Amino acid sequence: MIKGRKRVLAACAFLLVLSGSAGWGNAPDSPQERGRSESGTLGETEELSGSILLVGSTSMETYVRALAEGYMECHPNINVNAEFAGSGAGIEAVLGGTADIGNSSRSLNREEKEKGAVENVVAIDGIAVCVDRGNRVGGLTRQQLKDIYTGAVTNWSEVGGQDAPVVVVGREAGSGTRKAFEKLLDVEDRCAYANELDSEGAVMARVAATPGAIGYVSLQVADEHVNILALDGIVPAAGNLKDGKYILSRPFVMATFGEISEQNALVKSWFDYVLGGEGQRVAVSVGLLPVKDGSGAE
């Protein structure tokens, strides 16, 4: 999945110097304690080993799996385990001490931050609005999209399409994608969903198979089985996300309990990779906008 093994190995060598090294001691009480010696300092001669657990957003699955593959090439004695249970579940897990990192496809709210969760933005994603391949509508205005999702528009003929009912598809309550979409569109708690589905794949499949359906998914998972709509004449491409022209963009967050500098050696080395040049190129390779340039600089 990640091209250029020589480039990956070179990045690994740099990361090992950058992140230091640590032994794996007795079983810790929580993920946040893993990788620390009894004094809380890191060993300087032993190789990093152990495991990292990430829990959270289903929208981030492709990205996280690609990152894990590259990271484990750099750190063959570390296992990266990931569970995709939704953004809310990920943040709860990291706050509860049952996960090292909580993946969230939305910004953290005030309450989560007050409890100690720290928002570490690792990439920017676009939310693609998609319709079935038979739909002749190629784009909508922001207002038309709001009217469709709030039930003010119920037939495609009202927005320039064929005479056919609109089938409004979205994610389930608690989904980071849903929260981001509704907040960005200013339709929170006002959507008239016909179907509320629990994964990006389920939304894609329902829209592709249902005449008149409209749904939203992470841009990185939208494929040729659906048509992606322009919004206010702007398509969800990387350049338009970077310039802020496309209205539906959201952060991909890897939340920690406390700052990255307070985490154990394994988690620190993970963020060294994710926010470094190689990790940011992984973001680009799966259709995301990096938060740093190819050198890892801001």
Structure description:
- It is a single chain.
- Strands 1, 2, 3, 4, 5, 7, 8, 9, 10, 12 and 13 form an 11-stranded mixed sheet that branches.
- The protein has 2 domains: 5-124 and 250-290, D-Maltodextrin-Binding Protein, domain 2 (3-Layer(aba) Sandwich), CATH 3.40.190; 126-249, Periplasmic binding protein-like II (D-Maltodextrin-Binding Protein, domain 2).
- It is elongated.
- It is α/β, with parallel strands linked by helices.
- The longest helix has 15 residues, at 5-19.
- It has helices spanning 5-19, 61-74, 87-95, 110-114, 142-150, 176-185, 200-209, 238-242, 265-274, 277-285; strands at residues 50-56, 78-84, 101-104, 117-118, 121-132, 139-140, 167-171, 195-197, 213-218, 226-228, 230-231, 249-257, 289-290.
- The relative contact order is 0.20.
List the helices and strands and how they pair.
Layout: H1 5-19, E1 50-56, H2 61-74, E2 78-84, H3 87-95, E3 101-104, H4 110-114, E4 117-118, E5 121-132, E6 139-140, H5 142-150, E7 167-171, H6 176-185, E8 195-197, H7 200-209, E9 213-218, E10 226-228, E11 230-231, H8 238-242, E12 249-257, H9 265-274, H10 277-285, E13 289-290
Parallel strand pairs: 1-2, 1-3, 6-11, 7-8, 7-9
Antiparallel strand pairs: 3-12, 4-12, 5-9, 5-10, 5-12, 5-13
